[in-house]
Amino acid sequence: MMDRWVERNRDGLILLARVVMMVLFLASGWGKLQDFQGVVGYLASLHVPVPQLGATVAVVMELGVGLVLVLGVAVRPLALLYVLFVLASSVLGHAFWGMEGADRAANLLQFLKNMSIAAGLLLLCVTGSGRYALLRSRH
Predict the structure, then answer these.
(1) Among 82, 109, 89, CA closest to 39
(2) Residue 138 maps to a domain
(3) Is 26 a domain residue?
(4) DSSP of the chain
(5) What is the count of structural domains for the chain?
(6) Rounded distance, CA 18 to CA 21, Å?
(7) 34 lies in which domain range?
């Protein structure tokens, strides 16, 4: 019974997943765009090489690619690219293994949250865009 309901609503569920997953990134990307120099400074404090480029990549990925994924364009390759972005961001921004105490606990939680998001993005690679997309991927 559950399988039939999921299959009947598959495309709507995929759309819902795309939108809900990207809301976080769209909001974050908008914030980064509004305080671009602050993001550059933060990345510099993390010793990210070429922090201006890193900030630009973050804004493009979070706002640009996030919006394209919501719209359902090139979902499979862009979701896979997003997995790499999330993994890199996690390693650079939440390096819990070099921390102690409350900082370690908070960054471990953020790191694990990002790994969960990466897993959801991998599932999006498997499902494709579904029917509700500007350009549908075949499945």
Answers:
(1) 89
(2) no
(3) yes
(4) -HHHHHHHTHHHHHHHHHHHHHHHHHHHHHHHHHTHHHHHHHHHHTT-SSHHHHHHHHHIIIIIIHHHHHHTSSHHHHHHHHHHHHHHHHHHH--GGG--HHHHHHHHHHHHHHHHHHHHHHHHHHH-S-SSSSSPPP-
(5) 1
(6) 5
(7) 11-127
What is the tens place of the pLDDT at every residue in 73-130? 999 999 999 999 999 999 999 999 999 999 999 999 999 999 999 999 999 999 999 9
- Which residue carries 């997943």 as its tokens? 17
Q: Which amino acid is residue 107, in one-letter code?
A: N
Return the sign of the alpha-carbon dihedral for residues 99, 105, 110, 115.
positive
Q: pLDDT tens digit string along 8-52?
A: 999 999 999 999 999 999 999 999 999 999 999 999 999 999 999
Q: How many Cβ atoms sit within 10 Å of the Cβ of residue 53?
A: 12
Q: Which two tokens stand for residue 49?
A: 């090489």
- Establish if 72 belongs to a structural domain: yes
- Whole-model pTM: value is 0.90
Instruction: Tell me, yes or no, whether 25 lies in a domain.
Output: yes
